[in-house]
Specification:
The protein folds into two domains: 14-36 and 307-418, Aspartate Aminotransferase, domain 1 (Alpha-Beta Complex); 52-304, 3-Layer(aba) Sandwich (Aspartate Aminotransferase, domain 2), CATH 3.40.640. The strands form four sheets. Strands 2-8-7-6-5-3-4 form a seven-stranded mixed beta sheet, sandwiched between helices. The chain has a four-stranded antiparallel beta sheet with strand order 11-12-15-14, covered by helices on one side. It has a two-stranded parallel ribbon with strand order 1-13. It is built from 15 helices and 15 strands. The protein is of the alpha/beta class. Bound molecules: 4'-deoxy-4'-aminopyridoxal-5'-phosphate.
């Protein structure tokens, strides 16, 4: 099973892992101890990742794939090994199918520009879901505007699940692409990817999976899933900003024209033409995020040590606890399905209180959450609220921290209603 809860054999000890994260010991200027519940926006980094960045700059740094000197060879080796570690993480058939990008957004844009522009024609259809992040939505709108393709939407139920009957109705010979998130960054919903991919393939469509909220939190196996593309970001999985990954099936990647042109992506350049390099370099024009890739590999090592199945099971436990505690908060409405159907994301709204005010008051208690539309405006329109407050967990959060959410919210409500 590629994207479902697997019970871990040993319970996860958050306290032990927390010691590796210097920032989690922070006390805020007002004296409150930090409770970091903004992990869906970006995670924190353990010492091991920070040290990988420092160590690379201090001892091994040079540009990659160009030099013959010792430092260049060392950096080349580290960069290649980073690609191999990411390959193993998602079980890609080969490292050449792992393209380093600057984030999930740039990975999706790469597919929209390269695959999309060469493959889509007027009247072709792109199938998206109502819960997509703008990063898996705007690039398709831009593509549709350029080539005359039509976007269709898989709606969600009131519980925040995809309406799978609609998938059947919407899929047709015109459907060229289904672009779907593995886990919603607002509802937390874990989508039934295997089913969607099977049905899309039966209709002859290609499937891009937005793995930004999934790869950091649960085992993902691209071969078991049989997805055509997978995009994700390093900074949401303990790695640095400025690095992301695009996985693609070999035959698709090989058929795609390069997206950005420049150094590193060519085999031969003449005055009037160029020949593109082989995979993966044909999609990595210019100096790539070298140190970021090496530090991402340190993050992958770290995640493997903690265990992604254990992380998923632990986050389910925290999410169950959060749902239960928040039930006692008057007028609070949680969006999305029950904990068993989602990742560690709890978005909510309180009657007549603005999400930003709530987040600001939680910050006074040291609790860092996100408020707003979380780059999902169409989803918020469907939910009927302009904004939500979102608490999102990672394996270094503790039940003691989750316990503080409901009382802090009740205090916040009290303060806001007095105003
Ligand atoms: N997709 C989803 C589901 C996300 O949550 C995010 C980040 N919020 C992205 C895509 C975009 O990731 P990035 O900004 O790192 O490119």
């Amino acid at each position: 099973m590629a994207v479902t809860a697997r019970e871990s054999s040993s319970p996860l000890d958050a306290q032990q892992w927390r010691e590796d994260f210097p920032i989690l010991a922070r006390v805020l200027p007002n004296g409150a101890k930090l409770i970091y519940f903004d992990n869906a926006a970006t995670t924190q980094r353990p010492r091991q990742v920070i040290e990988a960045i420092v160590d690379t700059y201090q001892r091994h740094y040079a540009n990659v794939l160009r030099g013959v000197h010792t430092l260049a060879e060392e950096t080349d080796e580290l960069y290649a090994s980073a690609r191999e570690k990411v390959r193993t993480l998602i079980n890609a058939p080969s490292a050449e199918q792992v393209i380093f990008t600057y984030g999930a957004t740039s990975a999706i844009n790469l597919v929209a520009r390269s695959w999309g522009e060469s493959m889509l024609r007027r009247g072709d259809e792109i199938l998206l879901t109502e819960m997509e992040h703008h990063s898996n939505l705007v690039p398709w709108q831009q593509l549709a505007a350029r080539c005359g393709a039509v976007i269709r939407w898989i709606p969600i139920t009131d519980d925040g699940l995809l309406e799978l009957d609609a998938l059947e109705r919407l899929l047709s010979q015109r459907t060229k692409l289904v672009a779907v998130t593995a886990v919603s960054n607002v509802l937390g919903t874990i989508n039934p990817l295997e089913h969607i991919i099977r049905r899309a393939h039966a209709a002859g469509a290609v499937v891009l999976v937005d793995g930004a909220q999934a790869v950091p939190h649960m085992p993902i196996d691209v071969q078991a899933l049989d997805c055509d593309f997978l995009a994700f970001s390093g900074h949401k999985m303990l790695g640095p900003t400025g690095i992301g990954v695009l996985y693609g099936k070999r035959e698709l990647l090989e058929s795609m024209p390069p997206f950005l042109g420049g150094g590193g992506m060519i085999r031969l350049v003449e005055m009037d033409r160029f020949t593109a390099a082989d995979l993966p370099h044909r999609f990595e024009a210019g100096t790539p995020p070298i140190v970021e890739a090496i530090a991402l590999a340190a993050a992958v090592d770290y995640l493997n040590q903690v265990g992604l199945a254990a992380i998923h099971a632990y986050e389910l436990m925290l999410t169950r606890q959060a749902h239960q505690c928040l039930q006692s908060v008057p007028t609070l409405r949680i969006f999305g399905p029950k904990p068993e159907q989602k990742g560690g994301i709890v978005s909510f709204a309180l009657a007549n209180l603005h999400a930003h005010d709530v987040a600001q008051l939680l910050d006074r208690a040291g609790i860092a959450v996100r408020a707003g539309h979380h780059c999902t405006m169409p989803l918020h329109k469907r939910l009927g609220v302009p904004a939500t407050t979102r608490a999102s967990f990672y394996f270094y959060n503790t039940p003691e921290e989750v316990e503080q959410l409901a009382p802090a919210l009740e205090r916040a409500m009290h303060t806001l209603r007095r105003k």
